[in-house]
Amino acid sequence: MKLLKHIKAVLLGLSISANVFAADIQLQNLRCEMLVNPQGIDVVQPRLSWQLTGTGRNIMQTAYEVIVASSPAKLAAGQGNLWTSGKVASNESVMIAYKGKALKSGTACYWKVKVYTNNGDSQWSTPAKWSIGLLSPADWKGKWIGYEKGSPWDSVSKFSRLSARYYRKEFSSAAKVKRATAYISGPGHFELYINGKKVGNEVLAQMPTDYTKSVQYSTYDVTADVKPGKNAIGAVLGNGRYFTMRPKYKPKKIKEFGFPKMLVQLDLEYADGHHQLVVSDQTWKMTADGPIRSNNEYDGEEYDANKELTGWSKVGYNAARWFKPELVDAPGGKLVAQMSEPIKVMQSIQPKKLSQLKSGTWIMDMGQNMTGWIKIKVKGKRGDKVTMRFAETLQKDGSLYVANLRDAKVTDVYTLKGAAEETWHPVFVYHGFRYVEITGYPGKPKESDFTGEMVYDALATIGEFETSNEVINNVYRNTWWGVAGNYKGMPVDCPQRNERMPWLGDRATGSLGESFIFDNQKLYTKWLDDIEESQTAEGAIPDVAPAYWNYYSDNMTWPATYVLIADMLYKQFGDARPAEKHYASMKKWLTYMKGKYMKDYIVTKDKYGDWCVPPESPELIHAKDSSRTTNGQLIATAYYYRMLFQMKRFAQMFGKQDDAKEFSALQGKIADAFNAKFYNAQTQQYDNGTVTANLLPLYFDITPVANRKAVFENIVRRVTTVDNNHIATGVIGTQWLMRGLTEYGRPDLAYRIATNKDYPSWGYMAERGATTIWELWNGDTANPSMNSGNHVMLLGDLIVWYYQNLAGIKAGINQPGFKQVIMKPTLPDGLKFVKSSYKTPYGLVKSEWRKGSNFDWNISIPANATALISIPAKSAGGVTEGGKKAAEAEGLKFVKMDKGYAVYEAGSGNYSFKSDL
C-alpha cells in the first residue's frame, strides 16, 4: 500500500498542514458548520465535515473517529474532554453533528478526525479549531451607544447626507493576554480598529438584516493586536441599510431603523484564567466631524482628507474635542452570530481606456460591468476635489448614460489635503458600473492612477464551465460577473440604481444555477432566516426580504423562492436543517394563501404574471399583447401545486406523514380543477397557449399522462413557428424552460435558444456589448425606468441546464449533496466539447467530453461518493474505459441500456470512456 507524506486539513478557509505518514488516504477540507469564519459561531451543535482523497478507485469511508478538546495540548494528547466519538461505523463525512458536552459562550474547541476506509486508514488529521460566540443576552455586558441626531453639516432628508461616526477608548492590559476576542455589532456598517490597525479584512460589515428582528455580530481573534500596558480600541460607523438610503421619502413603502449605533465587547483572557472586559459605554468618546462627510449606498461617499483624525485609534490621541456618546435603545432584533462569508475586495481590475470627453472631464472604461469602487492615486493642492460618477453605459456623445439609475446620484468625492501622492477609496458604499466620469482631477490623469476593486461576499468559485460554443461561454462569463456583483450579504437584484433590493423572485431557480458556480450555502441559509423574519403573523411572505420595502403582494411565485431554496440547499449541499427549521413557516404561508385566495381549488391572486416576457415593441418594458402574456391564475395555481409537491417531500423526510397525506390529497383536487379550468381539449393546450402556460403544468406533472405529448408538441410548435426558435418566456417560464425542452426530448431546441445571437436571447445581450446579464431582453432599447444592465433574473434555469444537462453533473435524489453523482450528458448537434468541474461537499467532480465520430469522456468522482454514469452509446459492448471493455474495468458495474445510453454504477476515481455514437 502506498504512503502519503502529507495530510492537509482546512477549517473554514484556514490551511493547516503537517508532514506525517498516512496510508493511501488523504484528509482535507475539515470544516465546522461549513463556515468560512470559525470565530464566534452561535450553533450549539455544530456539524463537522471533511473530505477524503486517494489514488485508488472505489474509496469509501467505513468509519470515523472524532476528538474535540478544549486546548491544543489536550487534543495532542488524545484527550477529547469535550467529545470523543469513538470509532463510529459510518460512511458519512459531511455535516456530522457534534454530540459532546454542552458548549458555553466563548468556548474554544480544537478537533481532529481519523477515518477508516475500504482502501486503508488515515492517520489523525492536522488539528482544526472553532469557537463559540455569545449565546445569551446576559453574556453581553456592553451598552448600545450612538448619537441620535445629525450634525450641523448633515442633512436628514430625501437625499440624506450623514457623516460617519468615530468612536474610541483607551484601556490597559495587565499582562500579556492568553487570548483576546472582540465582539462587535455595528449596523449599518462598521470598521473596528485596535492600536491603529484595522481588524479583519472584510468590507461593508455588518451583514444586512431586518434589524428589528435580528442583528448580526462579528467575532475576531485579536490576541496578536493587544499589547501589555496601554491600548486603544476604535470603531467607525457608516450608514449601510440601517440609516435608510431615502429616509422620510416614502414612509409607507420604506422601512426606517434610525441612526447608526454599536455594541462592542472585548474579552481579555489571561494565563491565570481571569478575564477583563472592555465594553461599549459612556466612557468612550465619539465625533462625527471626521473625513467621511457623507456615505449613502445610492448616492456615494464624500471624503475630505483635511478632516482626517490622524492617530485617532492609537494610544495618546488628543480627543478633547470629542464628546460622550449617548446610551441608545437596542435595534430591537435578537443578536445572532454572522454565519455567512463576509464581504471582501475579491479582485482588482485595471481600466481599459481613459479618454477626455471635454475640458476637465474624463471618461474611464473598465472594460467590464462590475460592482465595487475605484481606488485612486492623486497629487494636487489642498482643497482640490476629485469627483467620480458611475454608470453602466454611455450615450452616443460619449457621456454617461444615467437615466436608468433613477435618482441615485452614484457619486464619490475626494477632497485633497495637498501632501505627497494621496491614495483613497470609499469604504461604506459600492457602485455598479463599467464607466466612470472623472472631474476635478489635478493635471492629466493616467490609467495607472485608478484601480477598480470588485466587492462581493467572499464565496469560493466552485464551478468551471467551458464549451466549444463561444455564445455559451460568453453568457457563462457574463453570468459569473452578474451573480458575484449582486451578492451583498443577501442576493440583491441590481447594484447600480436606487433599488438594490433582495427580491425573492429573482433567485427562485437562479439560486440553484448559482450553486454550481459559487459556494453559496451559507449566504442562502442566512437569507432563509431573513425571509422567515419577514413573515407576518397571518403567514404572508413579502416579495422583498428583508422587507426594506413594504411589498406584501400575496402572489405565489415570488414567495415560492422560500421553498425552492430550502430544497436547493438539501439537494446541492446535503443540508436538511434549513428545510426542517423553516418547515412550519413554509406550511403557514401555504395555509394562508389557501385560506385567503383559493376558490374551488384555483388560486385567484397573482401580482407579476410571467414577468418581463420579450415585448412586442423595442421600447416597452412589459408586453401588452395578450397572446404573449400568461394567465396569472394559471401561474399561481400551478405554483401552489408545485409547492405542495415539495412540501410533501419535506414532510416525508421529517416524519410528518399526516401532512404528507394532506398535501397529496390537495394536489389531486388542484390538478382536477386546474385541468378543468385551463385545458382546452380541442386545441390540446392550456389557456391561450403561451410557452409558460403549457410548460408549467407539463413540467409540474399536472398534465395527465395521456395529454403530455400533445401539450409538449404545442410548446414546440409555438417556439419554432410563432417565436422563430427564440425565447418567449419571462422570469417564471424561463425557470423551467431549458430542462423542460431537454427532458421531453428536444435538447436541440434548448441548444438553439441558448446559442441564439439575435433578439431576444442571452447571446443577443453579449453581442450588444453586455458583460453582465440585462434586466430586460430588450435592454438596449427599452424605457430606462426599469432597465438595469446587471440583473440575473432572466437566467432562469440556463446555468442549471449547463451543468446538469450539457456537462451531465447532477446530485442524486435519494443521496443529496452529491453523495451520489448522476452523470448523464446531453449532446446537442453542433456542440463539440464540454469541459466542466464542480467542487461538491465530497470533493471535485469533473466532466470533460468531446464528440466526433466517437464520444470521449473523462470524468472524476470524489472519494466516499458513488456515481450513476450514463454514456451515450449504441451498445454496452461499444463502451471502453482506459482502453479496455468497460465491463472489465475496475470500479464499474453495468446496469442497463437506456434510450441510447449505457448505464453504469461507479465508485470514486478517474475514468476515461470511449463509445461509438
Automatic annotation (TrEMBL):
The keyword Cytoplasm does not apply. Residues 176-347 form the Bacterial alpha-L-rhamnosidase N-terminal domain. Residues 814-883 form the Alpha-L-rhamnosidase C-terminal domain. Residues 1-22 form the signal peptide. Keywords: Hydrolase, Signal. It catalyses: Hydrolysis of terminal non-reducing alpha-L-rhamnose residues in alpha-L-rhamnosides. Residues 462-806 form the Alpha-L-rhamnosidase six-hairpin glycosidase domain. Its EC number is 3.2.1.40. The keyword Signal applies. GO terms for biological process: carbohydrate metabolic process. Pfam families: Bac_rhamnosid, Bac_rhamnosid6H, Bac_rhamnosid_C, Bac_rhamnosid_N, Ig_Rha78A_N. GO terms for molecular function: alpha-L-rhamnosidase activity. InterPro entries: 6-hairpin_glycosidase_sf (IPR008928), 6hp_glycosidase-like_sf (IPR012341), Alpha_rhamnosid (IPR016007), Bac_rhamnosid6H (IPR035396), Bac_rhamnosid_C (IPR035398), Bac_rhamnosid_N (IPR013737), Ig-like_fold (IPR013783), Rhamnosid_concanavalin (IPR008902). Residues 356-456 form the Alpha-L-rhamnosidase concanavalin-like domain. This is alpha-L-rhamnosidase.
